[in-house]
Design a protein that fits this description.
Blueprint lengths: L3 E8 L6 H14 L3 E6 L14 H12 L4 E4 L1 H5 L4 H11 L3 E8 H5 L7 H7 L2 E4 L5 H5 L2 H6 L7 H4 L9 E4 L8 H7 L28
């Protein structure tokens, strides 16, 4: 059976915006993925809680941006009860054994990847694709994580063709700069989450309702 190749992009999505959609579509095409999942985090341990919109609003914003694309927004970490990426990925691999996952992240995350819990274990679990972000390339290439991952760098073609993926494997993808950012959106529209109040959204992956008051 041919595995379903699935990209995983984690984040707060506070809010999701067109930049998220554009970079995800790029990764899907570049890596020959069947689809990508947006893991809308209930709470990022490396980010402050202040200014974080409720999980339901962030999931709704992700659902709006994902319309018509092979992108599945999900708050599955809420159901799994996981807080750290390594635990989430371990649980996803157990729950979805017929899928091949690849972790997608921007070069800004690679620059601080060594601060993530058990980051080497993450690298050993599934391939990692790093997408260039303006202003972070130098820090990413000089980071402690890159010093370790550099030996596992593989060309994009090795993931597009052939048999099952192996890990550790690092793919670097060049992407045209996109100026959009969640920070800028919040600064320009501090009350953006109010537009997503109302009914509780249904998770696209688990099909469970996410209550409005969760994850603020």
């Amino acid at each position: 059976m041919i595995p379903i190749r699935t990209g995983l992009l984690g984040g707060s999505f506070n809010p999701a915006h067109g930049g998220h959609r554009r970079v995800t579509r790029f990764a899907i095409d570049a890596l020959g993925l069947d689809e990508a999942w947006w893991l809308v985090s209930p709470g990022n341990p490396l980010k402050p809680k202040k200014g974080m919109a409720p999980l339901a609003a962030r999931l709704k914003s992700a659902q709006r941006q994902a319309r018509g694309a092979p992108i599945v927004p999900t708050a599955i970490e809420r159901e799994l009860g996981t807080r750290y990426t390594v635990d989430t990925l371990r649980a996803l691999k157990r729950r979805y054994p017929k899928r091949e996952f690849i972790w997608l992240m921007g070069s800004d995350n690679l620059a601080q990847f060594h601060r993530w819990r058990s980051w080497r274990e993450i690298a050993r679990m599934m391939p990692i694709a790093v997408i260039a972000r303006p202003g972070y390339t130098g820090a990413a290439m000089a980071s402690p994580a890159m010093a370790w991952l550099r030996r596992y760098r593989v060309p994009k073609a090795s993931l597009l063709h052939g048999g099952r993926w192996s890990a550790p494997a690092l793919v670097l993808l060049r992407f045209d700069p996109d100026p959009r950012s969640a920070t800028a959106i919040r600064r320009a529209d501090p009350d953006w989450a109010l537009r997503y109040s109302g009914h509780s959204p249904r998770d696209n992956l688990t099909h469970r309702l996410v209550a409005q008051e969760e994850g603020a």
